[in-house]
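ok so for the tutorial part 2 we go from a plain amino acid sequence to predicted structure tokens. step 1 is just haveing the sequence, like this:
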Amino acid sequence: LRHHAGAAPGRTEAREPRVQRAPPACQAQQVPPRLIYDLALPGVEDALGALGRCEGYPAQELTPQRCREYDALVIRSVTRIDDTFAQAVRDSRLRIVATATSGEDHVDVHALAQAGIGFASAKGCNADAVAQWVMWALARLATQRSHEIIRRVGIVGFGHTGRRVARCLQVLGVPVVACDPPLRAALQEGPARAAL
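step 2 — the prediction. this is what the tokens look like for a chain of 196 residues:
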């Protein structure tokens, strides 16, 4: 009971006791993810800082022992992720490895999958820029050799970049011949063989 200010003298009003309730288990506070990255990668904290705590280290210090304590690892091509690395981080906190490169030859994706760790790459991220540069180079060549016109262009490698270059050339009416034996072999084994 307490005396209410402004109430008649001698008059009191009942007050309910304060009870603090614990939040339900589903509302328990979550620990923000920890990301470890190659310190030579610019802008990682600006790009990924909202996802969790980011910590950068030189590439040679991105050891399996260190990476076990993080949820995500962001690397460049100088860091090799092989079966030994994948097995060393298996059953750890690490859930995903991401490379800021379009190539993946420095990562054993199968070994990561076997260890239950996801993988992401920047495959195709620079394809538009490279295609634009190729078109600029062809335009420059055509202006330097005004008496010659580009009749046909051969493209060796028909991945993300090669396909973008082909699309630009076809818009200009330039015939394209593509050569990519590994891609052709892969497509002939699968349902998409008509794509090349």
